[in-house]
């Protein structure tokens, strides 16, 4: 069991370990138990490959008790310039490298960050099972996989896939259209929704579509005395697949507001109104 909202570390960066620790502590204090990072987090912030994991490892070294208070998830399989490698040899060294950077003996959830089209799912499955048997990972997940890619990997695994991580927001509806959320309910997968605020567009609407969706969120936010982001996150969580939004804010004051997203309640008519505004058409 994990918290209904996760905290993501795509922008977790810098050399100030005390500031980094305050961010992690703010998330823990806000009730977050699921923390999601990846080995590729770093270059987008002008830092080296693995920088976010290394920073979190420095936080753990300074405050060892924090590790025990979280479900730690990371990802691998993206190789700069390749771009993807889920071959057995690479997965083994990627998992080991993440553990070393984090300064831990195991992670609770290890996810393949992007599907490697050239890797047979049987090879991927054996590598993941080997890592679990060695005690390096407790559970396995997939990120940005199609429904068929997830099904193919599960076909060769003797352990269940625990999670799937798609982009999902009121402006990114593919998990609804593709059947991914239906598959998640069928396979009992946790859905970890990345970019739940549509890469910031819901906070700074730029076109008629996003403005209309934002207005509906503002109405719901005013009803419950929360801000627009809380309404947007609650809309995602209202789906019966119980998606877990990954919140990426790096400001402790904003992290403290994460529990607000648990407050709004949606009627069917209100929820479908947001969906139709995003689609730009009425449902039949």
From TrEMBL:
<dbReference type="Pfam" id="PF00248">
    <property type="entry name" value="Aldo_ket_red"/>
</dbReference>
<dbReference type="InterPro" id="IPR020471">
    <property type="entry name" value="AKR"/>
</dbReference>
<dbReference type="InterPro" id="IPR050523">
    <property type="entry name" value="AKR_Detox_Biosynth"/>
</dbReference>
<protein>
    <submittedName>
        <fullName>Putative oxidoreductase</fullName>
    </submittedName>
</protein>
<dbReference type="InterPro" id="IPR023210">
    <property type="entry name" value="NADP_OxRdtase_dom"/>
</dbReference>
<feature type="domain" description="NADP-dependent oxidoreductase">
    <location>
        <begin position="5"/>
        <end position="269"/>
    </location>
</feature>
<dbReference type="GO" id="GO:0005829">
    <property type="term" value="C:cytosol"/>
</dbReference>
<dbReference type="GO" id="GO:0016491">
    <property type="term" value="F:oxidoreductase activity"/>
</dbReference>
<dbReference type="InterPro" id="IPR036812">
    <property type="entry name" value="NAD(P)_OxRdtase_dom_sf"/>
</dbReference>
């Amino acid at each position: 069991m994990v918290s209904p909202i996760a905290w993501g570390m795509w922008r977790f960066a810098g050399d100030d370990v005390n500031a980094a620790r305050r961010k992690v502590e703010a998330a823990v204090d806000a009730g977050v138990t699921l923390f999601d990072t990846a080995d590729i987090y770093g270059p987008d912030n002008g830092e080296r490959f693995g920088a976010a994991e290394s920073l979190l490892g420095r936080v753990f070294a300074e405050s060892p008790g924090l590790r025990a208070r979280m479900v730690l998830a990371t990802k691998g399989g993206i190789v700069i310039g390749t771009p993807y490698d889920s071959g057995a040899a690479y997965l083994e060294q990627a998992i080991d490298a993440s553990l070393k950077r984090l300064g831990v003996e195991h992670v609770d959830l290890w996810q393949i960050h992007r599907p490697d089209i050239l890797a047979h799912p049987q090879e991927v499955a054996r590598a993941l099972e080997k890592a679990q048997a060695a005690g390096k990972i407790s559970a396995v997940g997939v990120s940005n996989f199609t429904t068929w890619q997830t099904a193919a990997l599960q076909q060769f695994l003797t352990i269940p896939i625990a999670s799937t991580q798609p982009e999902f927001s009121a402006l990114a509806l593919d998990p609804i259209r593709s059947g991914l959320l239906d598959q998640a309910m069928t396979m009992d997968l946790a859905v970890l929704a990345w970019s739940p605020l549509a890469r910031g567009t819901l906070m700074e609407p730029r076109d008629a579509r996003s403005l209309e969706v934002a207005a509906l969120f503002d109405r719901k936010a005013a009803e419950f005395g929360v801000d627009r982001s809380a309404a947007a996150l609650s809309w995602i969580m209202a789906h019966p697949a119980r998606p877990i939004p990954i919140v990426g804010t790096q400001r402790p004051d904003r992290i403290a507001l994460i529990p607000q997203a648990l407050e709004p309640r949606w009627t069917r008519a209100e929820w479908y109104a947001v969906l139709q505004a995003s689609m730009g058409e009425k449902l039949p």
